[in-house]
Amino acid sequence: MNERMTFAIGDIHGCFEKLRSLLDVCRSSARDIAHDFLFLGDYVDRGPASDQVICYLMREQASAPSRFRCLMGNHDHMLCRAADPSRTDAELIQWWANGGEETLDAYGVDDPSDLPAEHLTWMRALPLQVRDKHRLFVHAGVRPGLPLEDQSQDDMLWIREPFLSSRLWHGALVVHGHTPTATRSPEVQANHVNLDTGACFGGPLTAAAFGPMQSAPLFFLNSDGLKFELKSRPATRRTPKSFS
């Protein structure tokens, strides 16, 4: 394999040490093969080091923007809304109740509006999707039956059903996170790949390696140092009781 690879990485949620471990594993696995990183959103909340995650991603993206791409997740969007002067009490409470307190602790502030302005500016500018020849990379998923160009922000950030149980072809393989898998392994179906393996709930942080010639992942890596392949098969999902 001598073609460029893209490593897509699932929800980080402030798990900075797992992020560093996974990136080391990816770079070691790639060896001398040119490679990019594409992050599927949810960099903040729940985990202990959201500040370190954002600082690291911002620095790496600034040094190599075409090789280090970051999408927006629903938690990143919730934080931006909670930090906005026009926020409602409901928006602040929703974010705080879903891991926002850990983000405040990590930054050492009492209000999300006190986060560094450059961090908030960076998060607000994150795109909702990236598409290549074979795949659509997005945080949560898409609305089945709706053209990819007509997908709403709300669905791309929040959708679970009917996307997760749909077996319709969406026009591209959808690579996403957002819904932690119960197995702590990625879920692979013919029409989507779920890379949220619950890093902030004790699971590993997971990456899928993609090449230019086929839509399906070449292999998977995780922050525990494992490299493995999965066949397309049904997998069990866990939907958290909170907003996730």
Automatic annotation (TrEMBL):
Per UniProt, residues of the Calcineurin-like phosphoesterase domain are 8-182
Q: Which Gene3D superfamilies does the entry mention?
A: 3.60.21.10
Q: What is this protein called?
A: Serine/threonine protein phosphatase
Q: Name one GO molecular function term.
A: phosphatase activity
Q: One GO CC annotation, please?
A: cytoplasm
User: Which processes are annotated in GO (biological process)?
Assistant: RNA decapping
CDD domains, per database record: MPP_PPP_family
